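Sequence design from tokenized structure. All designs in this work follow the same two-part layout: the structure record, then the generated sequence. An example of the structure record is given first.
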């Protein structure tokens, strides 16, 4: 009986963590094309969204919570997946795109059903991701997201037939 209760408790905890990631439908800014977006939020109100645009680029958008806080102009937040290296660039060392309340990175490209992206693979298999960033006020902030459930949501958003590899 104790083992059954322990197993149910563990399943409940895993279900709660996995519920942090979801897939929603969204219109892309460049046109009227609908995209599936894997999305997660954290208790502080920050958002993380990963999607494939109409050109096959896999994009990761980090957004601040609503309010008066904004990012410093022309400043790309740094993200770190688990104990990996801190990164503040898109693939091929390109700068991120950013606005007052968001920053976006290209993680890779879907080329004939394959995405070569160690970063995307880490997002799918990792435990957590932390973002560190400077605000327009000059202050620094940090926030974290759980990656529990990210693999299921990312696979659904990108399409089950897309293979993600590190090389």
């Amino acid at each position: 009986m104790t083992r059954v209760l322990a197993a149910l408790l563990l399943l409940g905890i895993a279900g709660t963590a996995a519920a942090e990631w979801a897939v929603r439908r969204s219109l892309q800014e460049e046109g009227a094309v609908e995209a599936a977006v894997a999305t997660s939020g954290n208790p502080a109100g920050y958002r993380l969204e990963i999607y494939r645009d109409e050109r096959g680029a896999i994009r990761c958008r980090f957004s601040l919570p609503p309010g008066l806080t904004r990012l410093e102009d022309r400043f790309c937040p740094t993200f770190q997946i688990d104990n990996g290296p801190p990164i503040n660039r898109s693939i091929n060392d390109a700068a991120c795109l950013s606005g007052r309340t968001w920053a976006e990175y290209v993680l890779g490209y879907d080329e004939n059903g394959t995405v070569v992206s160690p970063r995307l693979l880490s997002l799918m298999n990792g435990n957590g991701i932390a973002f560190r960033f400077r605000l327009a006020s000059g202050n620094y902030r940090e926030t974290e997201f759980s990656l529990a459930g990210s693999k299921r949501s990312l696979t659904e958003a990108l399409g089950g037939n897309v293979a993600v590899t590190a090389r």
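Confidence is low (pLDDT under 50) at residues 1-19. We note this feature because it recurs in several other targets discussed in the main text.
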